[in-house]
Write a structure and sequence with these properties.
Layout lengths: L6 E2 L13 E4 L3 E4 L2 E4 L2 E3 L4 E3 L14 H5 E2 L4 E5 L9 H9 L3 E5 L1 H13 L4 E5 L13
Parallel strand pairs: 1-7, 8-9, 8-10
Antiparallel strand pairs: 2-3, 3-4, 5-6, 5-10
């Protein structure tokens, strides 16, 4: 007999605890509720977590396990793929479909904005965010 494991990140949180709000982002990471985190983030309406995924190539069903183990179940996962929208592994889409979690793949700036908006509305949304690429100096034309 197998026992399902779940991570209870939403239902026992202190209601007076403010919702997670992304203040800013950079090539280094994210500022969430005034605290700066270096690297990728897994965000839930009341819980920010560092997430050990550095690139779109590391997005796998295994790297997204946390998002389908939370209680209560999230309705929507926003994946921010950095500076631009990237194609993700079809196995990721299939796994989330099987878990009945809707998916939106966006660039990180749009994923962050959408997360803030939906989270403030009280939706059961999560975000998997990879930092944006560092800005490259503008080239000069001769």
């Amino acid at each position: 007999m197998s026992t399902a494991s779940a991570v209870d990140v939403l239902s026992h949180q202190d209601p007076s605890n403010p919702s997670v709000l992304i203040d800013s982002f950079s090539s280094m990471g994210f500022t969430v509720n005034g605290v700066t985190y270096v690297g990728s983030m897994a965000l839930f309406p009341r819980v920010p977590l560092l997430w050990n995924v550095k690139s779109v190539e590391e997005l796998t069903p295994e790297s997204l396990t946390l998002f389908h183990l939370v209680n209560p179940k999230i309705e929507l996962l926003l994946i921010g793929t950095g500076s631009k929208i990237e194609t993700i592994d079809p196995a990721v889409r299939q796994m989330l479909k099987e878990k009945r979690i809707s998916l939106e793949v966006l660039d990180t700036p749009h994923a962050a904005t959408t997360f803030n908006f939906l989270s403030q509305e009280g939706r059961l949304v999560a975000a998997a965010l990879i930092p944006i690429a560092p800005e490259t100096p503008a080239s000069t034309n001769p």
